[in-house]
Specification:
- The structure is a homodimer.
- Chain A has eleven helices and 16 strands.
- By secondary structure, the first copy, chain A, is α+β, with helices and mostly antiparallel strands.
- The first copy, chain A, has a seven-stranded mixed sheet with strand order 9-16-11-15-12-13-14, sandwiched between helices.
- In chain A, a hairpin with a 2-residue loop joins strand 6 and strand 7.
- Chains A and B meet through helix 8, helix 9, strand 14 and helix 11 of A and helix 8, helix 9, strand 14 and helix 11 of B.
Chain lengths: 408, 408
């Protein structure tokens, strides 16, 4: 965390323990740094697991490992390595993941497939197996750590630790959800990697946990972008220890399932927004809401086209109500759009309506809105009922400095 | 042209006259500037025309006008306005284009549909009809201008005038091709607009000219990107006056058609590369070649994914051989790719082969290559015969300064 703390940083919240999950951290020494870089979560027998991973066609061996283990639906441990993503390392990278899982399984007496592994950091350098194994031996002897310790340990060039928590009432019992996440922020040649880990004491059957996590993901992690670049290692895992003692949730017909889904989506949204708030060089948090599209998927693609447009992002950095660039980004999305039906607002002020600049709109509240840290852009396509909301940050000199000025 | 001249600028070439085409420029005063901003090309009767326009779903009324007139295949005049793109201006924008075409048609005695119109500059402000009409009256009295005058007059925030020329032998006659183009470079709230105009004295039937221009476009203008943002106004028009006296080309079975296609593609490639060389903030010209893809279209999408990646572009700006970011951009393209078959080179030096870093590759020539202005990235997917080459520039502080620091 050598960069200055993001101006959009949020304080780390008080986060309760989750029965059935215990944390520890240690220094494996993946890089020449003094900080802890190996996070371990012990999970009681009976813990179910779900996960979503990067869409990259060139994923890390950790991602491949998790994809293979997830259908089995059970977890006993999580290992997160920081400082080396182990991506693009061929057979040696795969061997490192297998060695980690085998080492943990040998210690605690479980199947290797019960051990989930994620890594983040430099690409193209195989994770050193000796350091990983020694780290695991050490972390299993380490004192219990807190959520903040873990959130700091999974980070790489993140400028602040990121966590969120919420609760839901399921089957008459209050269940706890907590999550930690690391986001984008890199020093060359590291690659932006989003790793998120969610823990709950609710009892949830694995296939249903998977369905709920995928539903939450569609509205949260899939709706953020910093620079449109997709990591080879992105992974979000959710672990349900079952210690709350509720009747295990198996479908939306079960009492409390809707409440849990709402809580899970809320938690994921908090975590996703924290990643944007630590976007490289970010000085503004931007919410982009699109409505009136021909469908929700179309609205999402248009919103992401706006969110990924360097011209829109630099305009916001310059506090410039440049709605022409928003029109451009709508037009290039390749989705149905009708110039003469399009309306655009900044904050609550309409600046273009039905394909024309609003004559004499009050510029003062627009300028005041753009001077703030939380920016809203609204687009109404006027075509249908499709809607989507996504979040991004502005594009500033800080992004260039972080990614170009520092050499690998 | 208030920005410093691009370090990648090329000198304006000597360009020959094209029989049947005469140029003039004047100051319509679309902006409060002293320079000329209205370009006029008179085209002799019998001139055929072809064009390609932006894929934007929110195009300017000029683009709509050209799309409607192009199927008729004949042209007598071209009017290019600089300083106001007339985009997103509703009925009033359409009325301005119609007024321009009618004014020219009345003066020279042709159909309004024989008059092609393109505009570039600020968005959302209807082009003032009185200034346009007065400008046309003046330009028709103006002395003949040269290609450089026209190339300067169609520019907005371009930092240097851009033109190219070539020749081909068709049907025993040497025909001339010249082109001028304006590219990306903007001061908020102007929008990057690429307008290109090609003139030849060859005789070519309009449908075949259209086919050849589309073929050239696929390999040239469609293969460049500065920031991935697509203008509402992009237009390339090709005019063939027929004054060379060759038997009109109607298909690739005609003698010289292949030679003309090669010359046209070469001309378009020169013009396209000049636009990249004036990319906002550019300090490096980057050629990205992808081979071994499952098909050419797949190779093109992967190459554009690399060319549009902010992380790749900032790495090149930082002269950093960060091949991990190239892997990332391949992986996010959504096209078939196999991590363990992927090879990457910078210049002529392989840095990754078959999914692994090349151990002990010679870093000195890579570092020397990256310090230069012309950078080559090669990717071999190892899957098939598909290949594509695209061109882009790096992403620097200059881009942020141009687009964020200056306010509209």
């Amino acid at each position: 965390m050598s960069e200055p703390i993001s101006p959009l940083a949020s304080p780390f919240p008080d986060m309760p323990a989750v029965a059935g999950a215990r944390l520890a951290v240690t220094r494996a020494g993946y890089k020449a740094w003094e900080r802890t870089d190996l996070t371990y979560a012990a999970l009681d027998a009976g813990t179910t697991v779900a996960g979503v991973t990067t869409q990259s066609k060139c994923p890390s061996p950790e991602v491949e490992w998790c994809r293979k283990a997830l259908p089995l639906g059970q977890a006993r441990a999580l290992v997160v390595n920081a400082g080396n993503s182990n991506a693009f390392t061929g057979n040696r990278g795969r061997a490192a993941v297998e060695a980690i899982a085998a080492r943990v399984a040998g210690h605690i007496g479980c199947e290797p497939s019960d051990v989930f592994v994620a890594s983040t950091g430099v690409i193209g350098v195989p994770l050193p197996i000796d350091k990983a194994e020694a780290g695991i031996d050490a972390v299993l002897q380490a004192p219990q750590a807190g959520w903040r310790d873990a959130a700091e340990t999974i980070g790489t060039t993140d400028t602040f630790p990121k966590g969120a928590t919420t609760r839901a009432v399921v089957d008459g019992r209050t269940v706890t959800l907590v999550g930690i996440i690391k986001g984008s922020g890199m020093i060359a040649p590291d690659m932006a990697t989003m790793l998120g880990f969610i823990f709950t004491d609710a009892a949830i059957e694995a296939p249903f946990l998977q369905a709920m996590l995928e539903a939450a993901n569609r509205e949260t992690f899939s709706c953020i972008t910093v620079d449109g670049d997709t990591s080879t290692s992105d992974t979000v895992l959710a672990f349900a220890t079952g210690k709350a003692g509720n009747n295990p949730l198996a479908s939306f017909d079960d009492a409390g399932a809707d409440a849990f889904q709402a809580a899970l989506t809320d938690l994921c949204r908090q975590l996703a927004q924290l990643v944007v708030r630590d976007g490289e060089g970010a000085s503004k948090f931007i919410q982009i809401s699109v409505e009136g599209a021909t469908g929700d998927a179309s609205a999402h693609r248009i919103a992401m086209s706006i969110a990924n447009s360097p011209l829109v992002k630099t305009a916001i950095a310059g506090e410039d109500a440049n709605w022409g660039r928003v029109v451009m980004a709508v037009g290039k999305a390749g989705e149905p759009a009708e110039r003469d039906l399009l309306s655009i607002r900044f904050g609550n002020v309409q600046v273009a309506r039905h394909g024309l600049a609003v004559e004499g709109f009050d510029e003062a509240p627009v300028a005041a809105h753009l001077k703030g840290q939380d920016i809203e852009i609204g687009v109404d396509l006027g075509l249908g009922e499709g809607r989507a909301t996504v979040w991004t940050c502005d594009l500033t000199h800080g992004y260039i400095s972080i990614n170009a000025d520092y050499r690998s």
